[in-house]
């Protein structure tokens, strides 16, 4: 029996070289950070690979699926899976959670957030969708992989936790800067500026403990002050 060994031709989505590079850098860094969750949970190598893969390429797959401009890039460009696997293995082989690795991880987390946000924003603009949609897709790209990872590890997604450090806000800031430079005709500055602004806002918010407002529950009123329970004049 003869087997057809030809590689099927798959139409790839439009993507510029700069956006591709930023996206791949984000995939590698995101997979490192995701795989470290496996270390905290005392998982084996397979746990590192699974959490690393979903963290690295999960947000991009969600983004590309919503854009409906062809198959997700992670499925048609081998570089995506390669970078995600390398990042997962790096987290497994090297000690990153102690010593000098702590500061490196904080910086890596911030730059990854910015990289994913600008990649998602640029990808959306490159396929011809509205600038407002580009901002939304930038945040989805930055947060999507982390949400899937947190769900798999039975945690409240970092996007919705009331903890110090801007997350979605930093991603939105990166997307806004990226969009502004792109609309002004400066695509390279859009990528660099978005990453730096988003990363810097994330690091500064962590350093000073900034967080979004949290609704505080009001103490219940004493029964005598509730409507219908007030005592009348004697």
What does this entry look like structurally?
The protein is an all-alpha fold and 234 residues long. It has one domain. 65% of the residues lie in helices and 0% in strands. The longest helix has 26 residues. The termini are far apart.
Main traits of this protein?
mainly alpha; disordered N terminus; 234 residues; 65% helix; globular
Please give the structural blueprint.
Elements (H helix, E strand, L loop, with lengths): L16 H24 L4 H23 L5 H4 L1 H16 L7 H26 L4 H22 L15 H16 L3 H22 L26
Helix pairs in contact: 1-2, 1-4, 1-5, 2-4, 2-6, 5-6, 5-7, 5-8, 6-7, 7-8
Indicate the overall shape: globular
- The proportion of residues in beta strands is under 5%
Number of domains: 1
Structural class: mainly alpha
Intertermini distance: 103 Å
The total of helices stands at: 8
Count of distinct strands: 0
Low-confidence stretches: 3-12
Query: Main beta sheet: strand number and arrangement?
Result: none
Give a short summary of the structure.
This protein is an all-alpha fold and 234 residues long. It is built from eight helices and no strands.
